[in-house]
């Protein structure tokens, strides 16, 4: 059906059409690369043009590689308009819903796949380990090609992990820990190498800070990342400002990506304008490059075909949609992804936290007293206006920030369910729920601070020195 120009394309959704065009484009490239007969290539090209025309007729938009269609709703006169939708990009997260972003809609809009029970069970079978509570509770909720990674793993083929941090401030907050906590678990259960990119160059380009300050923040943030407990023999942490100048393989991949992505595409994907500096416009290629094992010849022995798995918050997905579109054209495997939900600000789930607002989150430098004050004073409540009403009608866990934070940091499933039932029934008051959160966060932050004190400049240097890791490739 996909190969017949006469197939009924009218029944397909914009996203299905987008995927059909992408698949057909890859088929045309493969036929040309394989020097297929001319009539076969011509037929495939005609099919591609037909699909692109159907896509434009349905959406009113030209097909752009790596840029799925926005949500569209048909109105009576047959024209289209955008739905009121959450704003999610690498720099902004906004929603009008107190429950937070509608992640099911986001999956459709971004064209990813939901992490379902079958996939979680498969991860458990492959690793022989109980799935992390971030998986069990839907904190990591969406993926791209995780099934392929498991196929490879089950066939004894290697893969590696890549995640990162944009060092915008000296102190990180608890939300920044989420990808690292989960990445550490993935590294341990699959026993694979990990690279962590510190995008100090990005922060210099986007923020009002000196290049020296961006680099200093990167090294300070590295200490917090190391304090999560990563193994120095299996983990390479690098600053872009440092590593880019020393790795020919890394730079070659950046240039290959830059050649295959147009200015029009990055404007469409990232919203860049003609007045943005050229550093911003070229930066996505730098975030793409660690997705390819040839960027780290010292780790992978020069091998270029090792697949990458990227755990990250879903606002980073635009970078990797672009990367996945480019990868086949530069002879590289597409990176797979695992997406997390956003960690809510204390004031509510309508936005993600800001490192520049000390009251929007709990920071890894906060004292027990500061933690208590912030939660009691700023944590948005799903409780009722009076104790009498709360006892009668119960609280709303869907919007209560203290309960949201507990889903991230309270590991005991039974205890979390008890708290949910007690709060929903009105048996547990808001102040009592906040007390549970305070008693959960204080020792967690204190333990992190203790581990961070042990991270010397020498240890940071070990993690950040390009070297062979404890794996044979």
UniProtKB/TrEMBL annotation:
<keyword id="KW-0597">Phosphoprotein</keyword>
<comment type="similarity">
    <text>Belongs to the class-I aminoacyl-tRNA synthetase family.</text>
</comment>
<keyword id="KW-0648">Protein biosynthesis</keyword>
<dbReference type="InterPro" id="IPR014729">
    <property type="entry name" value="Rossmann-like_a/b/a_fold"/>
</dbReference>
<dbReference type="Pfam" id="PF00458">
    <property type="entry name" value="WHEP-TRS"/>
</dbReference>
<protein>
    <recommendedName>
        <fullName>Tryptophan--tRNA ligase, cytoplasmic</fullName>
        <ecNumber>6.1.1.2</ecNumber>
    </recommendedName>
</protein>
<dbReference type="GO" id="GO:0004830">
    <property type="term" value="F:tryptophan-tRNA ligase activity"/>
</dbReference>
<keyword id="KW-0067">ATP-binding</keyword>
<dbReference type="InterPro" id="IPR000738">
    <property type="entry name" value="WHEP-TRS_dom"/>
</dbReference>
<dbReference type="InterPro" id="IPR002305">
    <property type="entry name" value="aa-tRNA-synth_Ic"/>
</dbReference>
<keyword id="KW-0030">Aminoacyl-tRNA synthetase</keyword>
<dbReference type="InterPro" id="IPR001412">
    <property type="entry name" value="aa-tRNA-synth_I_CS"/>
</dbReference>
<dbReference type="InterPro" id="IPR009068">
    <property type="entry name" value="uS15_NS1_RNA-bd_sf"/>
</dbReference>
<keyword id="KW-0436">Ligase</keyword>
<dbReference type="Pfam" id="PF00579">
    <property type="entry name" value="tRNA-synt_1b"/>
</dbReference>
<dbReference type="GO" id="GO:0005737">
    <property type="term" value="C:cytoplasm"/>
</dbReference>
<keyword id="KW-0547">Nucleotide-binding</keyword>
<dbReference type="GO" id="GO:0005524">
    <property type="term" value="F:ATP binding"/>
</dbReference>
<dbReference type="GO" id="GO:0006436">
    <property type="term" value="P:tryptophanyl-tRNA aminoacylation"/>
</dbReference>
<dbReference type="InterPro" id="IPR002306">
    <property type="entry name" value="Trp-tRNA-ligase"/>
</dbReference>
<feature type="domain" description="WHEP-TRS">
    <location>
        <begin position="13"/>
        <end position="69"/>
    </location>
</feature>
